[in-house]
């Protein structure tokens, strides 16, 4: 069976203790490769290699680091088809989605920061005649980058690219659930001859390799994307050491649909914002609030479309949804559907697992599910399910919509549908949310701040925000004789 390797100090190497974990193909439920089950020794090696490479890498000109990132971006582009196939197989997502979204975005993340670092500038402040301040923004050292399984290469590269662009070296740990494209990225780095130790990729379990990485005293900062509970664990380790951390965590995003919306556009986009990537995008709108005047019409149309949504083998051109990423996550989603029923919810669509038969008979497929009749306080509406499950609920007034939207401990993203410009602004300003989309969803400009409030995280990624995170500002104040 194919064995993924760690990428440390420019080499592919086996885990020091020779232990491996099974890697599953979600669409078949079968093991198809093995992942290093790394531990402390592997993490120590990787951090040492990154530390050693730091003086060289941070001393390169921005244009030189930019050229390396550009090479990675171009090589991802050349291999787009094979990377997309690997991502789809490893994660269960439709090949079409990996081809159109995941891999192009990974390519663009490197391309974006290859360009951004050339334009990055720092501030200067004139205090008075004869007194000038200027701010240096310097690379910090070794960045630990940890990412989740839902958008594997996309989110992995979203951290690595700005960290490297800013002049840091990196030890990165992809999710053990979807390690394949991180391994293929390591192959690309070897192929283009990226200097040894600049990027190191270590595979393994979160509680072991991940925990060893964030606990290592020789890392300087942590950029983490994943669940809120994991973020809390990491913060407990990092905060007392006063190291920088950026935490991009869970969400329970509201999708607010007002009477005066563009109905067809809201309906079409709500299909995507509910079920894209099997609902496993941190930005998916899982709580749908519909104003009373159009509630019944919208609900009926939404239910009908959802029932027609095609769940199928990820490789099939016409599959709109693929498999759930792991057996554990599949069980978790199904248990939430049961909980929703216990809490008094009515299942209007889906509500069950699907068996596709043939080679996919053991795959982890769940029908897109709509639940009605729950109030905002129940666990189904408070806890992150992170699957193809949404709740719908009517509201009457703008105030009520805002209160419902703000009623969870999360605050990542929100969507608003209205043709009223004033209402769109008014509501956007009142939402407890790091990101608000009006009459659209997942429209991303890589320059904009990305992140959440409340239990959805600390800090922002994207654009200059990421370059600020991955650099340390130092103010230099100079008085000179006039
Ligand atoms: P997770 O928290 O279980 O794992 C994320 C990563 O952290 C993995 O690489 C894992 O191995 C590692 N990890 C786990 N325990 C660790 C520990 N103790 N120390 C160090 N590392 C550890 O999350 P997941 O299940 O992979 O991903 C789903 C979650 O990610 C959802 O909550 C989702 O909302 C969130 N997410 C957030 C964003 C965002 O931008 N805010 C984006 C995507 C996903």
Characterise the protein shown here.
The protein has about 475 residues and is an alpha/beta fold. The protein has 2 domains: about 270 residues, Aldehyde Dehydrogenase, Chain A, domain 1 (3-Layer(aba) Sandwich), CATH 3.40.605.10; about 200 residues, 3-Layer(aba) Sandwich (Aldehyde Dehydrogenase, Chain A, domain 2), CATH 3.40.309. The protein has 15 helices and 22 strands. The strands form 6 sheets. The protein has a 7-stranded mixed sheet, with helices on both faces. A 6-stranded mixed sheet has the order 9-8-7-10-11-21, with helices on both faces. Helix 12 links the parallel strand 17 and strand 18.
Offer a few descriptive terms:
about 475 residues; alpha/beta; Aldehyde Dehydrogenase, Chain A, domain 1; Aldehyde Dehydrogenase, Chain A, domain 2; 2 domains; seven-stranded mixed sheet; six-stranded mixed sheet; 15 helices; 22 strands; binds nicotinamide-adenine-dinucleotide
At the fourth CATH level, what is the homologous superfamily of the largest domain?
Aldehyde Dehydrogenase, Chain A, domain 1
How many whole angstroms does the radius of gyration measure? 23 Å
Hetero groups in this structure are: nicotinamide-adenine-dinucleotide
Unreliable parts = none
Give the rounded overall mean pLDDT: 98
Q: What's the number of domains? A: 2
Estimate what percentage of residues fall within beta strands: 15-25%
The CATH class of the largest domain: Alpha Beta
The major β-sheet equals: 7 strands, mixed
Number of helical elements: 15
The CATH architecture designation of the largest domain is 3-Layer(aba) Sandwich
Structural class: alpha/beta
Q: So what's the overall shape?
A: globular
What is the first-to-last residue Cα distance? 73 Å
Percent of residues in helices: 40-55%
Number of strands: 22
Order the strands across the largest sheet as they lie in space: 14-17-18-13-12-19-20
The CATH topology of the largest domain is given as Aldehyde Dehydrogenase, Chain A, domain 1
């Amino acid at each position: 069976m194919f064995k993924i390797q760690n990428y440390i100090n420019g080499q592919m190497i086996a885990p020091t203790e020779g232990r491996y974990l099974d890697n599953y193909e979600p669409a078949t439920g079968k093991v198809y490769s093995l992942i290093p089950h790394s531990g402390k020794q592997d993490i120590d090696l990787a951090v040492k290699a990154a530390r050693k490479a730091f003086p060289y890498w941070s001393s390169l000109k921005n244009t030189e680091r930019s050229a390396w990132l550009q090479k990675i971006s171009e090589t991802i582009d050349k291999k787009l088809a094979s990377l997309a196939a690997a991502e789809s197989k490893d994660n269960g997502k439709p090949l079409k989605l990996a081809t159109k979204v995941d891999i192009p975005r990974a390519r663009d993340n490197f391309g974006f920061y290859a360009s951004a670092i050339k334009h990055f500038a720092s501030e200067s402040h004139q205090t008075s005649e004869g007194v000038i301040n200027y701010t240096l923004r310097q690379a910090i050292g070794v960045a630990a980058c940890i990412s989740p399984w839902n958008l594997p290469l996309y989110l992995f590269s979203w951290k690595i690219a700005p960290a490297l662009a800013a002049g840091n070296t990196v030890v990165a740990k992809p999710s053990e659930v979807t390690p394949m494209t991180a391994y293929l990225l390591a192959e690309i780095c070897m192929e283009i001859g990226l200097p040894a130790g600049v990027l190191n990729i270590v595979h393994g379990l979160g509680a072991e390799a991940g925990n060893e990485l964030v606990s290592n005293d020789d890392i300087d900062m942590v950029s983490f994307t994943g669940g809120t509970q994991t973020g809390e664990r990491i913060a407990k380790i990092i905060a007392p050491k006063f190291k920088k951390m950026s935490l991009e965590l869970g969400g329970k995003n509201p999708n607010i649909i007002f009477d005066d919306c563009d109905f067809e556009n809201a309906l079409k986009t709500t299909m995507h914002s509910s079920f894209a990537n099997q609902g496993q995008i941190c930005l998916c709108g899982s709580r749908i609030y519909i104003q009373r005047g159009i509630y019944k019409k919208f609900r009926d149309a939404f239910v009908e479309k959802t029932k027609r949504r095609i769940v199928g083998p990820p490789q099939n051109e016409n599959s709109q949804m693929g498999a759930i990423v792991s057996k554990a996550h599949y069980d978790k989603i199904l248990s939430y559907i049961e909980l929703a029923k216990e809490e008094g919810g009515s299942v209007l669509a889906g509500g069950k697992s699907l068996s596709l038969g043939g080679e996919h008979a053991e795959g982890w497929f769940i029908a897109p599910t709509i639940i009605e009749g729950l109030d905002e306080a129940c666990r189904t509406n408070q806890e992150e399910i992170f699957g193809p499950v949404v709740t719908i609920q009517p509201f009457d007034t703008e105030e009520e919509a805002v209160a419902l939207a703000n009623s969870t401990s999360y605050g990542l993203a929100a969507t608003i549908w209205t043709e009223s410009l004033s209402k769109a602004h008014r509501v956007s300003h009142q939402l407890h949310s790091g990101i608000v989309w009006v009459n659209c969803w997942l429209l991303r400009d890589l320059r904009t701040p990305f992140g959440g409030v409340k239990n959805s995280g600390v800090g922002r990624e994207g654009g200059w925000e990421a370059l600020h995170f991955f650099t340390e500002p130092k103010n230099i104040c100079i008085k000179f004789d006039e």
